[in-house]
Amino acid sequence: MATGPVAPRVGRILVKGAVTIRDELRSLTTSSPARFAVLVFVTLIGLFTVLYSLPIAAADGRRTPFADALFTAVSTICVTGLATVDMNAHWSAFGHVVTYVGVNVGALGVLTLASILGLVISKRLGLRAKLIAAGESNPLRIHGGPVNEGQTVRLGEVGQLLATVALSTLIIEAGLTILLYPSLIWAGVDPLVALWEAPYYAAMSFTNTGFVPNDGGLVPFADDYFLLSVLMAGVFLGSIGFPVIFTLWRQRWHVKQWSLHAKLTIITTVILFFAGAGVFVLLEFNNPATFGSMDAWDTTFQSFFVSANTRSGGFAVVDMGDFHGSSLVVGSMLMFVGGGSASTAGGIKVTTLAVLALAVWSEAKGKGSVEAFGRRIPSDVQRVALSVVAWGATIVAISTILIAQISQAPVEDVLFDVISGFATVGLSTGITAELPDPAIYVLAATMFMGRVGTVTLAAAVAATSRSQLYSLPVERPIVG
């Protein structure tokens, strides 16, 4: 007799609970977009940690240790490419599929992904959801304060930006797959195996992850310059960022109509690409373990390949552990800079470097404002750029000290791998696979902070944004 009214009551409670959870999530997306974005990434990492922990994910059918499963999940979602296990031999076909899906999900970007989920929750792309997506193209929006400069992507264009993100990812990876497939067959890969390896390599290049699906990595293809060139092209397209792809899609070759962000990203990327290659040639041409045994053409090509991948790609033909210490320092500098904002690359971003370089140049010339291409860069952008560098350097320094103390490994090797993790590059001197569990957790946290972004992380931690209605007297301390 009592079961009749109980069932409808339980149903109403469940429906009410579901509505409450949905309202809480909607409130979170509107009150703190940055925190919601971080929550999305944490949730994804937790989910993929569980998937990697399943016995079916390992080639030997055994449960993968928690530290390795967590590290692989962070490296996959953060599109880093570092690994504590042999990514080819350790994982089963299911594990490789999990990795393939994970890097594509992570490549969408923490804020863009949060925007899509916010859209699903809100059933429409409202102003707040647009602000989240616009924040991926300009981190200043996350602070919630006034933004004086012209935005990289206007709010009305965010829907188009999200479509560009999805379409560009699909089209570029498909194009790379088509180019890579015949090259893999020509290199002796079985046609059926190439059907899997071609899209895998395409995804790893465009997402700037650097995982490889075969034994020996890229070493068997060291002389296949077409395949390596395609991978470099994928790394470049992934590293310039979705807002730049959006600008190129709309304006194509009308350079004068490009946004300032697109101009700074393309120019700085090209300069670093050629400068890095030139420095690697000068430092490694007489090293028999790297370029010393190659002819002039091979040395030139491989130097460009190293330059492109130390900025974020993570692919390597030559073992990074064989490079001179001076080359590792140069590689660390390139990794720390990384790629473009709102891209699959990590680091402090090339626009951050460009803004600081322009600020230093303007100061040296005695100018009162920072200008580029007929536009003025406001002081708040300069402050954010300086903050990103300061926070990034702090994270790298603390992580290096902790890991060096825990592992007792050479500090120069630890520093290289820490910067590689922070900048989500994926290159390693070989110590990452040998780290004890406590050091693995520290490096995983470093990768997470590097991918989420120092500006986003700082905005997520801040409880509220406060406005100051007064100003204090000015007094100039002595600096320098």
From TrEMBL:
Q: What topology does the record note for this protein and the membrane?
A: Multi-pass membrane protein
Residues that span the membrane, as ranges = 34-54, 66-85, 97-121, 161-181, 225-249, 261-283, 384-402, 439-463
Query: Chief subcellular site?
Result: membrane
Q: Where in the cell is it found?
A: Cell membrane
InterPro entries xref list: Cat_transpt (IPR003445)
| Annotated Gene Ontology cellular component terms | plasma membrane
Top-rank taxon of the source lineage equals Bacteria
Keyword terms of this UniProt record: Cell membrane, Ion transport, Membrane, Transmembrane, Transmembrane helix, Transport
Q: Which PANTHER family does the annotation name?
A: KTR SYSTEM POTASSIUM UPTAKE PROTEIN B (PTHR32024:SF1), TRK SYSTEM POTASSIUM UPTAKE PROTEIN TRKG-RELATED (PTHR32024)
Entry protein name: Trk-type K+ transport system membrane component
